[in-house]
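User
Class, as today's exercise, I want you to study this protein, comparing sequence with structure tokens, and judge whether sequence predicts the tokens.
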Amino acid sequence: MKVSYKWLNEFIDLADLNPQDVGERMSRTGIEVDGVEALGEGLKKIVVGHVLTCEPHPDSDHLSVTTVNVGEAEPYQIVCGAPNVAAGQNVIVALPNSRIAGNVKIKKGKMRGVVSQGMICSLEEIGFSNSVVPKEYADGIMVLPEDAVPGTDIVEYLQLDDPIIELDITPNRADAFSMRGVAWELAAVYNRHANIETTDTSKFEANDLADALELKVADTALVPEYNAYLVKNVKVGPSPLWLQLRLMASGIRPINNVVDATNYVLMANGQPLHAFDYDKLANKVIETRLAKAGETLVTLDEVERTLLETDIVITDGEKPIALAGVMGGLDTEIDEDTTNVLIEAAIFEPIHIRKTARRNGLHSESSMRNERGINHATVAESGAYAAQLMHELAGGEIVEGRERVSVIDLTPVQVSSTLTYVNKRLGMTLSYADIEQIFAQLQFDIEGDGENFTVFVPSRRWDITIEADLVEEIARIYGYDKLPSRLPSVNAVNMGYTDWQLFKRRTNDQMLANGFNQVIGYSLTGDNQTVLEMANAKPVALDFPMSDDRRVMRTNLLSTLLEIVQYNVARKTADVAIFESGRVFKWADAALPVDETHLAAAWTGHSASKTWSHPAKVVDFYDMKGALEAVLDSFNLDVAISFEPVSDLPDMHPGRTALVFAEAKGAERVELGFIGQLHPSIADKYDMKDTLVFEISLDKVYALPKMAVKQTPIAKFPGSERDIAILVADTVTSAEITATIEKASKGGILVGTEIFDVYQGANIEDGKKSMAYTLKYLNPQATLTDEEVTADVAQITDALSQDFQAEIR
């Protein structure tokens, strides 16, 4: 919010204070000040001028040659490009060697061969933002009132020396969203009297609007108060300069004297108002209700909007004519032909207003105040104030009556506390007299006995409702800088890591030990930037994303990892091995989205670099499988881990991909995730060569049963090894063979099975492969005999022959 210092002085006398000091003091008491500056700073030699003559430029179809009285003995000749310049106007003139906005120097020169002694300025050229310049002057120069005296310093004339305090008001301090609110705040801070003039509403309270209007409020929970005032025979036209300047200083574009009156009250009182063209109300009815499905409304910005059943609307008894608290409708707009004005002063339920404003992208001064709350005590008064201004500014005739529906309770909120409670929270020894003085500055009534007290909070401070709020008010008015500082008396206790935190750290440590680098990816991604989904996951979309590229929460980790790999490969980093453990998000059957912790890794390039003794080795499926097995083994899981080939997983190589399962004894197996090589088309999309990836759910891994680890001594007796080679169908996997071997061995002496050769080619028929295994035997209690090992090997070969029709070679 932008606050004019000169306007503020009409509410509270601050003439003896420096605006910069006032801004700093406000920041220290809880309302942040972004800055204090005056538009006129840096302007030099800019005055009021009167255009005496205006002729077309002889060598241009858009320039004009003017002579301008600038209060000196001789008029100045100035070439001007504004389309609205004309003789008889009072204008803003930058003299030779002047400075305009942006520290631009204006010199005497020639334009198309014609001497120009300065420049006729637009409002933007002296520092006003284009967003606040009146529309009739947006593409040209501003025409000043007829009583403007040539030669007058424009900084003085347009009050550009007025310091503007820009406030960054937090949602809990919406009471300061008005000149009155800021005045009350500074009155408390400086212990001064606030000059808050009120408007007499008695002449409106005695009567209603009789047959002129019928007011209906469908739900007082959504519209707890609605006041309607009528002003007849207004003459719509430009507002006086003083009003336009105050609105522009506040960041609001002047429209006309009727609309500007409502905006002036908005900034003065903090009460949003709306003005309807009364004669455009077809049924002379105002009804507030929720919109119906399928209804539409063309708002003042000429956009047709489809309404939802959660939108509060103002209707004429049939169709919507305004989005309540957000924006009016085009059909009832105030224009130059308006003669009768209906003024709305109301309270609307904030949550509905916020949702409507955000969905439609209609964030305005009015909607912001309706969303955050307004002073219930001044709603009716603000409507009466606007009617009075329309009488003064537009010559309107006030109808002494109003239509009103109100269920508002204006009884001051009572909040009780104790001196002990306050001092304990602040770490101070304030007396009851100190407390009384602070609330006297705030102009809150207080009753108490020295220890216990009750504060009666006026409606203008609706943010104060609990005991802690009183403590905050006491602290900020007393002065945060006066609060004593000391170290906390509680000794820190190292609580250690939780089991889940240790599990996560172990996961990361093992991946680092595997040679991977840890990365942290962004949790937000685009709608079409997801590959390698573990399952059909509906993404969670943000209502208000920072950008379209970051609209949804990620449903997996690998999409981000591939972008990181692509980034590094593009910068000539050939070997990249990275991992991330983080959360993914998706919609489930529940009303709220769910999140899950995953572990994912991507590996491209070489698993072993070239040395003098061996060539470089390109990473393959088994390298990545070994890395994943090392992670799973580190958890001491009491489950059987299996890898099952899959050919239909999207974005993965159909012959080099597997699903990862865990199966505990007596329980159903659990799918943990997948592992494999990227499909060549996906690798090409990311400009990468063969790339291996995996992604598993750490939540599922964490839930698996664990085994107790027992230390066993080194065996005292020697072991034995036997090699077997078998011929099987090429569809049989090593995991299936190993499982059969371990199941067939009955003596408990088989302690390990390792594959050492796989062969397909010459002397092996098509569709077959030869696989060779080393069987390791050990009996920790006695020396193995040849008969024991031979018998166990025979059982194993018989089982292989039965299960896989294997030929023993």
Notes: The longest helix spans residues 786-804. The chain has a mean pLDDT of 92.
